UniProtKB/TrEMBL annotation:
PROSITE patterns: TYR_RECOMBINASE (PS51898). It comes from the Bacteria. This is Integrase. Keywords: DNA integration, DNA recombination, DNA-binding. InterPro entries: DNA_brk_join_enz, Integrase-like_cat_sf, Integrase_catalytic, Integrase_recombinase_N, Integrase_SAM-like_N, Phage_Integrase. Residues 102-250 form the Tyr recombinase domain. It comes from Conyzicola nivalis.
Amino acid sequence: MLLGEWLDDWMATRADWQPTSRERARGIVEIHIKPKLGQYPLGALDHQTIQKWAGGLSASQGASSVRKIVNVLSGSLQMAVKDGRLPANPAHGLNLPKVGKPAKRYLNHEQVRDLSDAVDTLGKGMYRGERNGYGLLVKILAYCGLRWGEASGLRVKDIDFKRGRLEVQHTIVEVDGVQLDSQPKDYEARSIPVPASLLAELKVHVNGKEAGSPTFAAARGGWLRGRVFRHGLFNEAAEMIGQDASTRPR
């Protein structure tokens, strides 16, 4: 069996993957693994061949990306070992580039407030940030620690006003331009405390909305897309207050 054929079979068996994980692995296989290694017979792959391939990835990929690509190949070959097709995993023990950890930058309380206010002032008519509660969304992201997909997938009924918590049970993922309702990362629902001041703002924001509707919807309805929010409002608002868009509020 050729490696390319084995990779297809291996991906088809991964019922544990979420849609985004499957799409990410498929892209890695098609773009980075099959063109160079796909025609090798599975049993002909050796450590030196894979090391040479992995070393070549660094010419176009960063250290973190190289490791992610190699991990996909290694995962598929480990399954081949379990299946009795290989005596050992030839992708184990490779010399891979080290991944540096850049310093993270956070906003203080005043900067979060300024960013929220700036987001609210942007847009016109139905797209205005204030009308859609997007300034409040900035504060929810800052003080509640939600991932983007979790914030997008937050429904009105997920807000427990009595206990002052957000019940994170959904996440919105985008695959091939289609938004899908999925489970949170690691399939783990979370209960997150909300500051009292934000809880009061949330109560006003969701007043009159149906229980199953998005807490923060797109201007035309439906789930809010991260790309639209970031490129349409967040980046511009960050520049308005003198911050770059990679900054994370806290």
